[in-house]
UniProtKB/TrEMBL annotation:
Organism name: Rhinopithecus roxellana (Golden snub-nosed monkey)
Entries under InterPro entries matching the protein: Peptidase_C69
Gene encoding the protein: SCRN3
Protein name (Swiss-Prot/TrEMBL): Secernin 3
Similarity-based family: Belongs to the peptidase C69 family. Secernin subfamily.
Molecular-function annotations in GO: cysteine-type exopeptidase activity; dipeptidase activity
Domain of life of the organism encoding this protein: Eukaryota
Length: 117
């Protein structure tokens, strides 16, 4: 059976034991696609004139990035889900709309997840 959709959930206190926050996500990626869990430490970037290679396009490098732990398909720059050192968690979801899809290369939703983590 082909995957159909993703689901993301969060459980917040007081519904959790010891006032914990629980974040989870399943993925609709194919079962044989390698999914990596990766760690990127916080960094200060002094190469602000350079571009950062994302999955399909390049963007300007930001001055500072936070420590993140990400789960991502091995072939792309972005991520399915992640969390940063400040406790911000985010997951990728498909959003279906009525607007025409652009033919130009752009950031993927998963690229935005990595950039937001």
């Amino acid at each position: 059976m082909e995957p159909f959709s993703c689901d993301t959930f969060v459980a917040l206190p007081p519904a959790t034991v010891d006032n914990r926050i629980i974040f989870g996500k399943n993925s609709d990626r194919l079962c044989d696609e390698v999914q990596e869990v990766v760690y990127f430490p916080a960094a200060v970037h002094d190469n602000l004139g350079e571009h950062l290679k994302c999955t399909y396009i390049e963007i300007d490098q930001v001055p500072e990035t936070y420590t993140v732990v990400l789960s991502r398909p091995a072939w792309l720059w972005g991520a399915e889900m992640g969390a940063n050192e400040h406790g911000v968690c985010i997951g990728n979801e498909a959003v279906w709309g009525r607007e025409e899809v652009c033919d130009e290369e752009a950031l993927l939703g998963m690229d935005l997840v990595r950039g937001s983590s």
